[in-house]
Every structure is written in C-alpha cells, then in structure tokens.
Amino acid sequence: MKINVGHNNKGGSAGWFLSKIIIEDIGNKRKYDFPLNRWLALDEDDGKIQRDILVGGAETTAITYIVTVFTGDIRGAGTKSKIYLVMYGARGNKNSGKIFLEGGVFDRGRTDIFHIDLAVLLSPLSRVSIGHGNIGVNRGWYCEKVVILCPFTGIQQTFPCSNWLDEKKADGLIERQLYEMVSLRKKRLKKYPWSLWVWTTDLKKAGTNSPIFIQIYGKKGRTDEILLNPNNKWFKPGIIEKFRMELPDLGRFYKIRAWHDRQNPGSGWHLEKMTLMNTINKDKYNFNCNRWLDANEDDNEIVREMTAEGPTVRRIMGMARYRVTVCTGELEGAGTDANVYLCLFGDVGDTGERLLYNCRNNTDLFEKGNADEFTIESVTMRKVRRVRVRHDGKGSGSGWYLDRVLVREEGQPESDNVEFPCLRWLDKDKDDGQLVRELLPSDSNATLKNFRYHISVKTGDVSGASTDSRVYIKLYGEKSDTIKQILLVSDNNLKDYFERGRVDEFTLETLNIGTINRLVIGHDSTGMHAGWFLGSVQIRVPRQGKQYTFPANRWLDKNQADGRLEVELYPSEVVEIQKLVHYEIEIWTGDVGGAGTTSRVFVQIYGEEGKTEVLFLSSRSKVFDRGSKDIFQLEAVDVGEIYKIRLGHTGEGFGPSWFVDTVWLRHLVVQEENLTPEEEARKKKEKDKLRQLLKKERLKAKLQRKKKKKKKGSDEEEEGGEEEESSSEESSSEEEEEEESEEEEEEEEYGPGMQEVIVQYKFDVNRWLARGKEDNELVVELVPAGQSGPEPNTYEVQVITGNVPKAGTDANVYLTIYGEEYGDTGERPLKKSDKSNKFEQGQTDTFTIYAIDLGTLTKIRIRHDNTGNRPGWFLDRVDITDMNNETTYYFPCQRWLAVEEDDGQLSRELLPVDESYVLPSEDEEGGGQGDNNPLDNLALEQKDKSTTFSVTIKTGDKKNAGTDANVFITLFGTQDNNATMTESTEETVLQSIFMH
C-alpha cells in the first residue's frame, strides 16, 4: 500500500519537513503509518515537493522517469502557468496520478527536464496527459513534444504535441492526450534504482562541504564518477545522508572509491562508512572506511577505496599499497610544473586517476632527471597490467618528457619493480601533441597494442554556434570506457577550435574498449563565447575497421534549449571501413657532419599480402637531427610478412641532405603460443597464486557472514542469512571458474593457444639520401637484415620521345616499374639523364633506377606533371634493362601525354612486348604508323586489358568553392591502387581520395 503526498509550493516558506502520515480506517478499525522523515522542498534534500510513501516506512521501490518537455519556438509559446503530467501504463489501467512539474521554465524554445520517482512501473507508456492550471498572466502554452525515458527498462518514448494548450487559441483545450510516435522509440542503457547511505563520523571537524565524488566497481564494469553534492551541500558530523541513484548492471559490487579534490585546510572529511541497497531486490553492500580524506590528516590522502562486505558479497578483497616511481627524462626541458595524474590498471579494476602531490622523497616534483616516489592505496588489483599517466597542461613549463614508471607492491624488494617505459613527450608542441600516455610493461609495446580513436567533431552551421570553452569527450564500449578526455590538440592544426560549420579532428589513444555503444561530450562553459551548437561526432577506429556516426544537432548552452552543457549520444550508423594495423618505425640518423634533414620523410612497406600507401613521417618535435633516434606510429593495411621497404624524402627545405644509419620496423602478429619451460613454470606459478588468493577472499566473506549471523540484534543481514549461506556454497565452484578466467581473457581474445607478439625487422642503411652525394638518389629500397629474399638490382631505363612535331616536353616525368614477384619501384622522378636537355623530339634519354629486384617485369606507369612552357609529350616507347640478368623489356606507347591531344591523359600504363614487335624504321617518324604494323594489334590488346573509369567531380555551390590548383585523384581497388591522375576537366566522381 502506498500514498502520494505533495504541496503546491505557495507562500513565503513553502518548504515542508514531513515526519509521517497516519491514516485510520474507521470502518475496519485499522490504522496505517506512512513515515517519511524527509523534506518536500525545492531548496532542500533532492528538491522534490511530491513523494510516494509506502505503508510502514518500507523502502520505496522507486522507478525513475526522466521527463523532457519541449516548448515550441513560436511567438507567445511560453507560459507561467503550472504544468502537470499524467503517465499511463501499457494497458492504461495504471497511471502516475497528476504530477506537477515544479521548477520548470517553459519559455519559448526551451527544454525542461524533470526526474520523477514513482512506486510503480509504467514503462512502456501507452499515452500521457499534459496540461496546466490556466492561471497567471501568460497562461497559454505551445507544447512541441514530451520525451520520457525510463532507465529501468531503457525505453525512451516520444509523444508529439505541436499544439496550443490555450483556451483562446485553436480548440481551446488546456489539457491534451498525447500518444507515442513509435518510429522514434529508442533503446538506451538500462539502469536500476539504488539507495546510498553515507555516514560521516561525529569527530570534531569531520564534516565537509567539498564536492564529494564516488565511483562504484562491479564484476561487469564500473560507474562513471558520481558527484554526491552538486551544490556543495555539507556532510555534517554524525549525520547520515541518503541519496538515490540509477546504476547500470555491474554485477556484484566489489569496491567503491570516494574522494574530493580540495587540499586546502578545512576541506577534509572523516568518512565512517557507506551502504548501497538495490531498491528492487534489496541486495545490500557495506563499505567501511573510518578514515580521513584530508591532505593534512592521516596519510595526507584525499582518496579512499573501500572493499565490499555484507551478505551479498562472495569474496572480500583485501587492500594493497603500491609504490609508484615516476622517472622524468634527462632531455633539455624534460621537467613539468603541471599537475600530474596517474591511474594503475590491474587484473581486477583500477585505482582511478590519482593526483600525484604527496611525494615521499622530493619536494620539487617532476624535475629533469627526477625519480619521484608515491604511494597509492587501493583494493587489490592483483597484477598491475597498465599505467595511464597525464598532466593538465597548466603552467608555463607544462611540457614533460616521461622516461618510465616503476610499480611494485609496498614491502616488496626493488627487484620486483614492474617497469612501464614511456620515452615520449607529453607536450602540445612536441611528438604527437598528446598529454596522455597509456603504458604497458617493458616486455610489451604500448604504441602497437593501444587502439587509436580518430574523433571528428562538427560544429553546427547556425548563428553563434562556435565556442571558446574546453570541450571534453568520453567513449563507452562493450569492454571498457575511456577517460573524460579534454580535446586540446587537433590533428588538422586549425588555429581556433570548434568554429561555426567546421570539423575539428582529434586522436585518442587508449586500450581496446570494444565496439562503441555511446559517448558523452560536453564543455566547461568557460570563455567569452561559451555556448556551443554541436552538429555531430564521427569516430573512426581503423584497427576495428569501423566508423561510427553520432548525430547531435543541439545546443550545449546554459541559456539555450534545456540548458545542459553535456549530452549522451548513441550511434545512428556504424559502417565498415578498411581495417588497418599499427606499425612502429624507428629511424636512426647517422652521426656524421650534415647528416640531419629538414625534408619531409616518407616510407612505403611491402609484404606478402600487398603494400601500404606512401606514409609521411610527421611530428611536432624536431626530428631527423644528426645522431638522433626518432620513433613514429603508423596506421596502414596489413601487408603480411615484410620483404622490403622504400625510404626517402622530398628534397625540400634548407638542409635536405640526409644520412641514414639504421631503420627498425615493428608490428603485431597473432601466432601460436610457444613458451619456454621457464615461461610455462612462471605462468603456472601465477595461476596457483591467484587460486590461493581467491580461496582466501571467499573464506573471509564466509566467516564474516557467520559472525554477523550469530550477532544478536542484527538487522537485515540476519534475515535470509541461511539462504545466503546456502547460495554461497552452491555458487562457489561457479565463482572459481569465473575468477580463474580473468587471467585468460587476453589469450582467449585471439583463440586457444594463440598470442599476440611483436615482430621486428632491422634494415641496415648506412648511406646518404642526397643530391650530389653517392648515387644522387633521394629514395632507397631496403630488405630486412639477415632474411632471405630479393636482392638489390639496377634498371637501365631508356625513354624514347617520338619523332613528330612538338613531341618533346619540359614537364617533370615520373616512372613506376611493376614486377611479378616483389611489387614495384614506387614512383621515381626521371631527373638525371645522359642528355643535358631531356625529352626532346626524336631523342633517347637514359636513366638509372636502383631498386630491389622485382622479378619479371609486368608493366610500367609513366606520367608527367603538365608543367613548363611546352608540357605536351609524344612518347614512342620505354626500354628497360634488368642489369642483374641482362634482360631487356620493351614498352611501346606511341601516344600523346597531353591535355590538348589524343584523349587528354597525362599518364599511361604500358605492357611489355616481344622484341619483334618493336620495328625500328628509318622512314617512319614516330614509329608504328605504317600498314600492317604489329603495334596496331598490340594497342588493341592493351586496351582490352585496361579498364576505363569515368570520373565526375562536382564542386560545391558555395562562395570561393573553386580552385586553381592541380587536383589529383587516386582510385583504390581490391587488388592494388591505380594511377594518381591529374584532373584537368571541370566535371567529375566516384568515392576516392583527393588532394591538391
């Protein structure tokens, strides 16, 4: 039995603290008590002035409904009248009763959000009634729609209205029945109602008004950070505070973390304990603390973790203290004045992000060459697997070069330290500009194993859409979630971020969170123009081969729409994209005079399964200096086992010459596990240790339940105790199986007996890539050291220009040679001829190309860039001699490469022919023009083997949309990419990649 009680919030002091209500049934001579002991006041407790109360004071099985009311954006749409709502269940025989929506604004174009708790489950709703009291000066109201989300069912329903509730307009109704538009129904993450009690001890100065946060951990995951007192409400000494919250299904809870972020005197808090209870099934968890959260008390920490206890808990996990040593590098400017945060990840959970301020051995933190020691106390994570470290970028010298992080359990010898190397900058202006690094142990490789999430944020194209605020984002996946990442450094290097109609791109590098199911994005509302109109968010995860689109099209502004600064978005579309893998390339520049280069360096990787694109190696740091080692992370197609790479530079800049010493290339492969006897023994020892720990944790929980059962006067722990004990015994084997699987999760991701390993290739270079030195080449092809494969080769190329009028060209000519076995040479500029003036009418120019042996040649691609006074060119043929086996290949062309001649193409792909096809003729200029010429048949054969693509390019109909630059297009197929072609026509396309 329940009652609903509330008031109309009228009068000078409308707030009301209700102790209880007594109802007497005179006819049946029965009396019913409905105790409450809570405020019904907008400025007290949870701000509600209407509540359900169960008979006898039982804990209300409250179901939350989030009601969003949209007022129309037309003249006079707002109202000052009191709005009420009635929700009806699926069959219409249950309803919520009339609920007054207190605290709403209901102004024109605004959105009002209300959280309503009911003791009855109505979702999915059949209909709603909405109306108003028809009092006040501006009593008429135009309602656009009502959206209702029930977190318990995860169902969000939309009830369109688009009508006046005004006795003087339309049909004069001031109450309307609204029905759902089923096509707009959405499924959201299910959440369940919980009650939280917080006990502050009665010690002197135990209370605080600092913002208190908690985070709850269960077997299936963790909550977000939850702020308990958004208005800095006091936690008073000796007082119990109660909160209601909606939590997702996390499985059995095993710990909770509580903290605040204030280190000033008087902000400390002495927490006794916390209790969580599921208001549906009454599962209860106790979390004992009895510690200070105070920078000036106890151990000076402001974060506490508490292990779960109580009848629902199967295993009581112990506490652990971790000694963390943060080593700053020795490079110039390596230290930082910024605030540094660190989080440890283990087999079970994580420590949460901890501010590193309480150093054991140094007063000046994170200085060049420092090894700063900290202690982090948490519920045991068993083995630490990953470290995330970041800084906030504040201070004049915020850039930081982190060498490594060492972690061990306190009390263990230094030899037990687990090393997490970094060797990278956390600096907006260096390396990749990121301020966050996720580190793995030294026997692994974080840059290869971490996933990269490429985030494109589109600001809407409406007036005032841009923002000066700091924007943040958090991604949620089926396996885990990311941190709340502030988007500080864009990949497209735009000067001002989040401008109207623009797309800003960012990269987030972290662990694999699985398929993304939602995200949260918002801003801190700082700056002169804080309001922001978010268009959409797109996330590409090349390693997954997926692209997610999250439409928003809404304001994040205190003074617009619903006034929210943060929004949760769900993907409207998930499409397959090309799957890429990670490569790490390490380049050692030689230690000789003038060895460094300022040119743009590129690499192309060839393997048994194909080749990558040409990949430019870029960094915000100064790279390729004399004697330097530079490491780059690349995303590209999986080429399988690598047999060669091509390394080169563009020859631009003030000091283009470059002496390369060595190149290392690494990537991940999944292969059969092959452990040494020592590794197998170590693995078995770790599993045995885990089993003993689990057994100890289960025994501890069992003894606690027995102890509480014997204790007289116990409350809810005693009730159902035997049932809990029985169920504990029954599920013990199940628990063992579940927990033992934790150590095997990573292995099972790749299949039984399989593991992910790092494959490394070394390429010895020890040569110049420079004009005027060695062979004048800016490009070199390399094979892995100590690996059997193709040998270096030299190709002599003879380019014969036709003997027709104006056949010669002043343009730059480029050639690519393709082989049957080992790929191609890449596009090479034909610069150094044996003739001083290249490509003249009737002339033969000879060039030398150094490359890895290609095997039998299959085709060539030759083109020019259409520059110079006379760019048009009539090419007779190309002859290529393989100097290793002294074989000559003949590639006849006899066509124009000119915009104004033939078919207007500047690029030709040519196939080799037998020597007999090439008929030198003294009396036929240009060749191949006589009767019964075999080349006529060859031209038909080549055309038959070629494919013609009709490409249409449409330039946008916006101001200044056109360009005078040369536009290039590359088409990618399932087998290989074809030519990069210059487009000279004005029409144009199919899906491709553009650059100019």
Automatic annotation (TrEMBL):
Region listing for Disordered, in residue ranges: 702-754
InterPro entries registered for this protein in UniProt: Inner_ear_hair_cell_LOXHD, PLAT/LH2_dom, PLAT/LH2_dom_sf
Comp. bias intervals (Basic residues): 702-712
Every PLAT domain range: 1-54, 63-179, 192-307, 320-440, 451-570, 581-696, 793-911, 947-996
GO cellular component, one term: stereocilium
Gene3D superfamilies: Catalase core domain, PLAT/LH2 domain
Compositional bias per record (Acidic residues), positions renumbered to this chain: 715-750
A GO biological process held by the record: sensory perception of sound
Protein name as annotated: Lipoxygenase homology domains 1
Lineage: Eukaryota, Metazoa, Chordata, Craniata, Vertebrata
